[in-house]
Every structure is written in structure tokens, then in C-alpha cells.
# Entry
Amino acid sequence: MDNSTARRRVLRFLAVGAATIRPASRPRQVLLEAGERGTIAVEGAVLSFLAEQGMLVRASHSVALSASGVALAARLASPSAALQDRHRDLDVVAVEGSAGTAMALANLAESPLAQLVRRKGRDGKPFLSDSEFQAGERLRTDYTRGRIMPRLGANWVANVASGKRAGNGGLVDLTDAALAARQRVDKAIVAVGPELAGVLVDVCCFLKGLELVETERGWPVRSAKVVLKTALGVLARHYTPADGSDRHRRHQLLHWGADDYRPKMS
# Structure
């Protein structure tokens, strides 16, 4: 059972009431006991994820849904969600918004990056690290929030000399949040560089599959996956640099001199 199915199973099980946590015979698993409702086995990492996202309230030996968890479980129990389960790959994900991070149901099948993050290499480790995946999702969030979409035709109304577009979707209609998102996208693209930025936009923003990217660019088979991982690594370092003081030091001018050295003024 994958993590997506396990998370939905826990939410549905706890939607009726709290459960007692018991140790399981298998490593990394625990048992959720709920009397007449029965007992289910679940990975401890699944419970930890839901608790970190505010979906669960854990005590010493029991667990229950929080208010947010109850609301999300109700959505899962709706008939429309049951129909979606047959045609989509739904998962409980963290979504970053203006009011903070919130949990929501997402269709992972629509995102090539979400599919790739669940693949493992020959060593059994995930192909993408969490920081690389989050960096790609952050770029897509800003891309969507900034309403950066390609034009399908010419804008004959726009006054090119003024540098503004008067039609719908133009700069005049942009909110401060959308404009800030566009600026963050521009900075990310510049930081990654032109050699790697194209595949990031294709996969993370336009949701193109890796095979399509390889076909359009004339790349060898399975090469897009390697280039994408490299690009996501650079993007992750742009968003979360290892040491902010290093960046500050790079912009400082250094000069070796004696204690009584004084620079010459021209």
C-alpha cells in the first residue's frame, strides 16, 4: 500500500472516532485499535506526516482527528471523492497560500513531478529529494499565482509604447501578489540559468511529461530525468541556500594590508 492510500485509509478510519495506538509485530508499523470498529496497521511515518500537517491530535497512547482532519475526512467520504478515486491519483498534500500552509486533496496524476518523486533508484532511495520536489512545486505555485500563461494570439489593443496591456490578464489587472509571484519566478529562472530553466518550466509549470520533453528537444531517452534533477537541485539551493552568510561574504570586498594601511584616494 502506498502512502497516498494509507493516508486516506487513516483519515477514514479516524473519522468515526479516536483510536488507541499499539505496537505492531512488523517494524516501523503501529496498530490503531478502535474497539468494535476493528484494528488497522499503518506505517508510523504516515501518522507522523498527518500529525505534522495538523490533521491529527496525538496523546500518549491515542490519536484522533483535528478539526482540519475532520473536514478533510468528510470530503473523502463524499460520493464525488469516491468517484474521483477511480480515475485520479488523489493524495493529501500541503498547499502553501497567503494565509500559511494548509492540507488539501490533490491529483498527483496531473503532475509529472509528483509522479517522479515517488520513483526510487537502484539503491532503493527516492530519485528526488524532498527539497528538490518542494522547489519544483514552489516554482509551479508562483507560476500559477502569477498567471504566467502563453498568449494564443496577438493583442491588438495593447499599447506597446506604454509598456502596459489594457486587456484582461494584462499588467494593469495584476494584483500585488501576482506581480510578486512573477518576480520570484524571474529570479528563480535567472538563478538556474538558461541551460536548465527550460526543462524546469516545461515539467513543473506546463506539466509536460519527460518523454514529451525529450521528443520536443531531440534528447536521448531518459536524459530529461537527469537534467531535471540537476535543475531542481540548483533551484532548491536558490530557494534555501545552505548558509546565508556565504552569500553576504561573496559581495564583500576583501583587501590584505597592515594595521596602519590606508587606501589611496584618487
Q: What stands out?
A: The first strand starts at residue 19 and ends at 23. The mean pLDDT is 75. Residues 176-192 form the longest helix (17 residues).
